[in-house]
């Protein structure tokens, strides 16, 4: 956690810094209340994750060396590797037909809930960002390998041919529903946000999300920085560094951003809360973006100084 020379703390850490990542988890818990639980996990060898009744646990892999996931018959996978024993059950989802080990890498997502009934067995040297929340009607697949998803340019990666892939895509609410959170309570997409492409990323912020009779709930967007080389993405054309511009005072149109350098393994949180809304702009960063309660908060553009 660092203030980057400002009076307002900016939540930034590296996956290797246990104390800093614990503070990130505490901040997110404070933002989102008792419905959500957060952790940063490290595994060397193997780990078994068991379903918790009434809960969905999403694990966003940030490091994975020699790693894999044991998949059981009936588990759902979004876009499994070619030749993996599975049958298509709709859109990009497949159902596993034989128990088998599936390789995983940084950028992949593993989800556990009690509807699948089976545990999740992970092996290898791994580190991940973990979020637990109540189960809804949203169907979260056990595994989503990022490398196999199709690109859908838009948002902060809207240039032609952009790497932008939705691992846990949002399902928006009905137009008349006063609860704007939608059926799922977490989304993730990964994207390469480049300043050497047109259009480049732009400064913006998000605020709280209407939750019907509950009033509103806080929003957050957590960036988990990935290595570009793992996905064959070229470095910046002018060799510019990866960084995030943070705007602690979004009400001040002339406010100077704080520049936060990032590298693979960095974690940066942008809150959209009633009492602490910040803006951001990703400057040449490749990241998983985890949004709670989802990518459902209106986008408010900020002027670049």
Based on the model shown, name its key terms.
305 residues; mainly beta; six-stranded antiparallel sheet; 1 helix; 22 strands; 42% strand; disordered N terminus
Question: Your description of this structure?
Answer:
The chain is mostly beta strands and 305 residues long. The chain has one helix and 22 strands. The strands form five sheets. It has a six-stranded antiparallel beta sheet, with helices on one face. Strands 2, 3, 7, 8, 9 and 10 form a six-stranded antiparallel beta sheet that branches. β5 and β6 form a beta hairpin. The longest helix is centred in the N-terminal third of the chain and has 15 residues.
Helix and strand sequence: EHEEEEEEEEEEEEEEEEEEEEE
> How much of the polypeptide forms β-strand, as a percent range?
35-45%
Oligomer: single chain
Helix content: under 10%
Structural class: mainly beta
Count of individual helical segments? 1
The largest beta-sheet arranges its strands as 1-19-16-21-12-11
| Low-confidence segments | 1-7
Mean pLDDT: 91
Major sheet size, sense and barrel closure: 6 strands, antiparallel
Tally the beta strands.
22
Shape: globular
Gap between N and C termini: 25 Å
Radius of gyration: 19 Å
